[in-house]
Amino acid sequence: MTRRHLLAAFSALAARGLLRAGGAKLEHPDGSELVGKAAPPLRLTRWLNSPPLEIGHGDLRDKVVLLRWWTAGCPLCAATAPALIGFQQRYQSQGLRIVGVYHPKPDPGDVDLKSVKAAIAEKQFKFPVAVDADWSALKRWWLSTDRDFTSVSFLLDRRGVIRYVHPGGEFHEGNEGGFDTHATCNRDYHVIEGDIRRLVAQRA
């Protein structure tokens, strides 16, 4: 492998959050310690494509829920968008609900709802999207410790228990990408879909 190829591979890993300063490795960067625990409340009041929702109530009661924190201008979020849309189309009738949670980057702050609406339209999201401007829900769900990404996804069963955590970055079908950098994305996509199938098959 040439030096140019090595640099390209290093850049790809860094962009995906797989390399950290000083080579430090987090104890639980993948959120595995959260699996099996009851999902915390969202407590978010600004919603698009839906009235306000809460885990275990209203349209989310007795449903399998896939939540994805995302932001505008993020290539990893854009790469994941088709997977969310596809899951909604295939499994909504079986009890799956997709919920997007928009958070500003790089830091919490004011959010222009017009810009969020434009980003939703660009990604063709038809599912509910909450606005987490101050990252309050993100901190409650995910950032109680250091993490590699903020674009985390949670899959909940019909009782509101966390059954899978995707720690961020992207997931999608297919392995396209130099140095097979998207093999993990493809693997995670199929793991999530397999868990969705299993969870929607379970009775409420």
Descriptive overview:
With 204 residues, this protein is an alpha/beta fold. The protein has one domain (29-201): Glutaredoxin (3-Layer(aba) Sandwich), CATH 3.40.30. The chain contains five helices and six strands. Strands 1-4-3-2-5-6 form a six-stranded mixed sheet. Helix 2 links the parallel strand 2 (64-70) and strand 3 (96-102). The protein starts with a helix and ends with a helix.
What is shown here, in short?
The protein has 5 helices and 6 strands, in the order αββαβαβαββα. With 204 residues, the chain is α/β, with parallel strands linked by helices.
Main attributes of the structure:
single chain; 204 residues; alpha/beta; Glutaredoxin; 6-stranded mixed beta sheet; 5 helices; 6 strands; 32% helix; 14% strand; globular
User: Within the CATH hierarchy, at the fold level, what is the topology?
Assistant: Glutaredoxin
Low-confidence stretches: 1-26
DSSP strand count:
6
Question: What is the CATH H-level superfamily?
Answer: Glutaredoxin
Q: Beta fraction of the residues?
A: 5-15%
Rg (CA only): 17 Å
- Quick check: average pLDDT? 87
Number of domains: 1
What is the share of helical residues? 25-40%
User: What would CATH call the architecture?
Assistant: 3-Layer(aba) Sandwich
Strand order of the largest sheet: 1-4-3-2-5-6
How many DSSP H or I helices? 5
CATH class, anyone? Answer: Alpha Beta
